[in-house]
């Protein structure tokens, strides 16, 4: 019976884990309405069931299914169908970086359009960073410039770090329309951009960048404004070696959203949630305002009228020798506190000419243990009662103090009422410009549109299918890790799931512990051998003590227990409860010796003491009957 209960509890725990993962997975794709409710991400349900029921087979990559999105309906679209697009659609940079050594000035990193290292979909290609420890730059023109004229901006692309990432970027730059840019191949780190968006990591710092560049219409200066980083950890995007979908949405009402794998991680307003704010201050410090020469901002000053007391002796030291100290009787002056180690031996390879004269290491003198000390005794020092230190003038409040000076505020001549979305600069090209210490970074399925529905559909036809196939590939090549990897991945996306995991394991363990290790039996109830109602020992003792305190006069009538013959106490019982009753009965019915008339007369002269309470501190010993 217990084995059946254990199996049932184990099954319930597994079902709870599975339902938790399923719920977390479903929540990801319902966030912000980016994926339709009826959208099915499973590539082949029947095939999955067969794999679970039948023997494991080698993974077979399904063929790539061409998306149905029309490129003409977008500003930019590329799922890298053409493996020879570098030089036709994408152009590697021929520029050089400024202010760096000539050996690393060139953007000499290698790019290729090819399949990932692990093929999960046959015929699915991406833009791959092939080299490490180099500068990489590549760019492409849009089908038409994007203008911030009332429609949302949606930027979406995939990144996969096949070998993880030690230090390097993966962000995309939206290049500002620039009449001076003649060729897209001139793209470099100095090329103006409107927005920079995407992942970046170096060492222990992992980020998802979102940087807006904004031009002040009053003075023409361009400044960077950063969105806050997500509160959730993002290091897993660089370490799990899986494909991740990065989505940026900038709404006409100045709202922005950043999503990873269709889950929102950053959101805010262009007006209030950027650092530094786009809105300039209305007032600024007057740069021409100077502090007057006669402005005294010293709150406290020295009292120039104060003089050093005549008895102030600055020559007295802080500590003096204690002349009253006496050498302890057990002090061993002839012994040294440290002595050479008698067991130390000179190394065989020790060369006195090269290494110097060899000396054994010193150890504590064993003769000094348990005594006050060894070596030459010196009197200790003590605090000098005459010490006062160097005299300094006391400070007083400055009568000329005017307060802390600060420059006056004036109206900001560069202030303007911002309309961030409308004031963002138009862009007509995109580019990847990065340094990386890890190769095999795969970019894929890049989309720029003004229709959220289009981005949702494109993700369902590309990313959703790819993620499912990567999971199947991982299960086929590493079946033992699939389930636990899902648990960890779900908890990284939703940290509160760790609490669910703990309770999912803890509650069944508690139930199992109660079933298998709980109290198996209870003490048997022993019925009383008399129908007379009795009270618990504690209650009897308490009542007797109260009665004893309330009786001011001794009783003149002998108690019934003195004259009556004692009753026999019930036999000892094995249980604890029966023993307590037995003790209670025995106290109430204890045998007493025959009492003489002389004893009764003696008792009348003394206060009555309750002999039934053995624990009472006021009780006195019983009188013994004289033989």
Automatic annotation (TrEMBL):
Q: Which domain of life is it from?
A: Eukaryota
What are the annotated GO cellular component locations? cytoplasmic vesicle; endoplasmic reticulum membrane; perinuclear region of cytoplasm
Spell out the Basic and acidic residues composition-biased ranges.
283-293, 305-330, 565-588
Where is region (Disordered) located?
37-56, 277-296, 303-330, 523-627
Membrane topology, record value:
Single-pass type I membrane protein
Does the keyword Nucleotide-binding feature in the UniProt annotation? no
Q: Which PANTHER family match?
A: CALNEXIN 14D-RELATED (PTHR11073:SF1), CALRETICULIN AND CALNEXIN (PTHR11073)
Which family does the record assign?
Answer: Belongs to the calreticulin family.
According to UniProt, the name of this protein is: Calnexin
Q: Which organism is it from?
A: Acrobeloides nanus
Q: What is the lineage of its organism?
A: Eukaryota, Metazoa, Ecdysozoa, Nematoda, Chromadorea
């Amino acid at each position: 019976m217990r084995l059946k209960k254990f199996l049932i509890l184990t099954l319930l725990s597994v079902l709870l884990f599975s339902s938790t993962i399923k719920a977390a997975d479903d929540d990801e794709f319902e966030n912000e309405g980016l994926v339709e409710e009826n959208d099915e991400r499973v590539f082949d349900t029947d095939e999955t069931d067969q794999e679970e029921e039948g023997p494991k087979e080698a993974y077979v990559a399904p063929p790539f299914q061409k998306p149905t999105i029309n490129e003409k309906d977008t500003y930019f679209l590329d799922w890298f169908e053409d493996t020879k697009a570098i030089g036709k659609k994408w152009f590697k940079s021929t520029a050089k970086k400024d202010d760096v050594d000539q050996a690393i000035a060139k953007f000499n990193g290698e790019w290729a359009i090819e399949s990932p290292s692990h093929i999960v979909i046959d015929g699915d290609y991406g833009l791959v960073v092939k080299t490490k420890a180099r500068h990489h730059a590549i760019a492409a023109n849009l089908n038409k410039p994007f203008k911030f004229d009332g429609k949302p901006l949606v930027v979406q692309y995939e990144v996969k770090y096949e070998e993880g990432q030690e230090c390097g970027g993966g962000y995309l730059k939206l290049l500002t329309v620039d009449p001076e840019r003649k060729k897209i191949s001139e793209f470099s780190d100095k090329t103006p951009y409107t927005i920079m968006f995407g992942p970046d990591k170096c060492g222990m710092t992992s980020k998802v960048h979102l940087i807006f560049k904004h031009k002040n219409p009053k003075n023409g200066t361009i400044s960077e404004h950063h969105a806050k980083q997500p509160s959730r950890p993002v290091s897993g995007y660089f370490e799990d070696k899986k494909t991740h979908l990065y989505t940026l949405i900038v709404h006409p009402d100045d709202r922005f959203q950043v999503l990873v794998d269709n889950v929102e991680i950053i959101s805010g307003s262009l007006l209030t949630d950027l650092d530094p704010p786009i809105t300039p201050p209305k007032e600024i410090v007057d740069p021409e305002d100077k502090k007057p020469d006669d402005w005294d901002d010293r709150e406290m000053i020295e009292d120039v009228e104060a003089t050093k007391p005549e008895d102030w002796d600055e020559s007295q030291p802080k500590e003096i020798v204690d002349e009253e100290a006496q050498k302890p009787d057990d002090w061993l002056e002839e012994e040294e506190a440290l002595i050479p180690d008698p067991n130390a031996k000179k190394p065989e390879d020790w060369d006195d000419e090269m290494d110097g004269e060899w000396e054994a290491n010193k150890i504590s003198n064993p003769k000094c243990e348990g005594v006050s000390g060894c070596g030459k005794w010196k009197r200790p020092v003590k605090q000098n009662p005459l010490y006062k230190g160097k005299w300094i003038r006391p400070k007083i409040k400055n009568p000329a103090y005017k307060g802390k000076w600060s420059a006056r505020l004036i109206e900001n001549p560069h202030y303007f009422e911002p309309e961030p979305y409308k004031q963002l600069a138009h862009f007509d090209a995109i580019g990847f410009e990065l340094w990386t210490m890890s190769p095999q970074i795969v970019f894929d399925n890049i989309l720029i549109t003004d229709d959220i529905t289009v981005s949702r559909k494109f993700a369902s036809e590309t990313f959703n299918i790819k993620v499912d196939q990567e999971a199947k590939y991982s299960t086929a090549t590493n079946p033992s890790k699939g389930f636990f990897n899902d648990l960890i991945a779900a908890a990284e996306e939703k940290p509160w799931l760790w609490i669910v995991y703990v309770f999912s394991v803890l509650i069944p363990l508690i139930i199992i512990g109660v079933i298998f290790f709980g109290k198996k039996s209870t003490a048997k109830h022993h019925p009383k051998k008399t129908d007379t109602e009795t009270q618990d020992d504690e209650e009897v003792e308490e009542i007797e003590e109260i009665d004893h305190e309330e009786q001011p006069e001794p009783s003149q009538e002998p108690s019934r227990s003195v004259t009556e013959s004692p009753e026999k106490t019930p036999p000892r019982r094995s249980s604890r409860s029966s023993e307590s009753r037995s003790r209670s009965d025995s106290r109430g019915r204890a045998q007493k010796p025959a009492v003489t008339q002389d004893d009764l007369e003696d008792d009348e002269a003394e206060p009555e003491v309750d002999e039934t309470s053995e624990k009472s501190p006021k009780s006195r010993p019983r009188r013994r009957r004289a033989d």
